[in-house]
Prior knowledge:
There is one protein chain. By secondary structure, this protein is an alpha/beta fold. Helices cover 33% and strands 21% of the residues. Strands 1, 2, 3, 4, 5, 6 and 7 form a seven-stranded mixed beta sheet that branches. The radius of gyration is 18 Å and the shape is globular.
Amino acid sequence: MKLLVASRNAKKLAELDRILRAEGIESVELLSLADVAEYPEAPEDGRTFADNAFIKALDGAAHSGLACLADDSGLSVDELNGMPGVLSARWSGVHGDDVANYELLLAQISDTPDERRTAAFRSTCALVVPGLADASAAQQALSDAGFPAVLDDSGNLLLVVEGRWPGTILREPVGDNGFGYDPVFAPAPEEGGNAEGTLSAAQLSAEAKDAFSHRGRALRALAPALKILAELA
């Protein structure tokens, strides 16, 4: 089964590949947007992570004809009423400027006491599978396995899963691994962090991050569904 991952981020592709291999799934071939013909991408103007994930996944499936997986992830800070949320990647006004984004965040909660610096990384993964010979049978197989897949008016099979990674916001960035807000996010002790609350997500190994991260959790939740679909393909 060929699966288009609607991203050009090599780290995301590698993360999913590690998770699939760890789950013993060898029958899914991953492709990135760099591996398919370029197409005009719809703006990610949804109000929720799920909205944006489905915008990307439906776009990729329609233009490539392949099953397409897309995720939308972000940081929700309790003191900011859940923001940056879907605006995480462009919080500073410039899309993808990680340092500017987390520096603005740190400035906005600079006076917030430690006990109120709680936050969580959230990830929503949307899967769109077009052109199934027997979409109803696939839907039933997924439903039997506990996945509430639906069929849209175009016959696409739609599935969504979520992952959450709780922690707190540090007062300054620490660590060189990861990306985005990783340097300022300290996972809770039971979520891969340390008892002192000083270990950032950017200090974790790739394996540890896979085990605890929001995206890792969402992808692991999705892996059994991908296995079912690969067997039906």
